[in-house]
Design brief:
Blueprint: E1 2-5, E2 10-13, E3 29-33, E4 39-45, E5 50-55, E6 66-71, H1 73-78, E7 85-86, E8 92-95, E9 104-110, E10 115-120, E11 127-132, E12 144-147
Parallel strand pairs: 3-7
Antiparallel strand pairs: 1-2, 2-3, 4-5, 5-6, 6-8, 9-10, 10-11, 11-12
Organism: Flavobacterium chungnamense
Protein name: DUF4394 domain-containing protein
Length: 159
């Protein structure tokens, strides 16, 4: 199981989560995502071995958020020691004013269409944003932006 460590740029890994006894558990591994201010949303696709994370930056700012994509995630994670750092060279980073990402609190990913769905909480009172999967660092404009006041999560169900 992968989880974000709130108020940090870290993710944690819990191996064999459901076979652990009840009570407090310790992560198997913790890594820092270089350049990520405050991770919040997390989506992993086992189909294409891709991790997508949101960076809310400063929770009070509506203009400093971003998305980070890590392709070949299992290999990148395996090559990073516990308490190590996943370098920006292993990331695809989507930040900037065109993205309208200020406080992206959640993310979902469609591995069939390679679309990324983001719950943007702060910018314009809340939006559901859709992006094509970024393939290079930059500032991409969403392919769709829909006002959704107070949005705080997004989950994709394909029927």
């Amino acid at each position: 199981m992968y989880a974000t460590a709130d108020l940090t740029g870290d993710i944690v890994v819990f191996e064999n989560f459901f076979s652990n006894p009840s009570g407090t558990i310790t992560p198997t591994k913790r890594v820092t995502i270089q350049g990520l201010v405050r991770t919040h949303g997390i989506a992993f696709s086992a189909v294409d071995n891709r991790m997508i994370l949101t960076d809310v930056g400063s929770a009070a700012s509506d203009s400093d958020g971003g998305l980070i994509v890590i392709n070949n995630f299992s290999s990148v994670l395996a090559a990073t020691p516990n308490m190590g750092t996943i370098a920006t060279s292993s990331q695809i980073r989507l930040y900037g004013p065109n993205s309208t990402l200020g406080n992206p609190v959640d993310v979902s990913y469609d591995d069939l269409t390679e679309q990324v769905y983001v719950a943007e909480r702060l910018n314009a009172g809340g939006k559901l944003l859709t992006f094509n999967l970024p393939t290079a660092n930059g500032d991409a404009t969403p392919t769709m932006s829909r006002q959704e006041a107070g949005i705080s999560s997004v989950y994709l169900i394909r029927k």
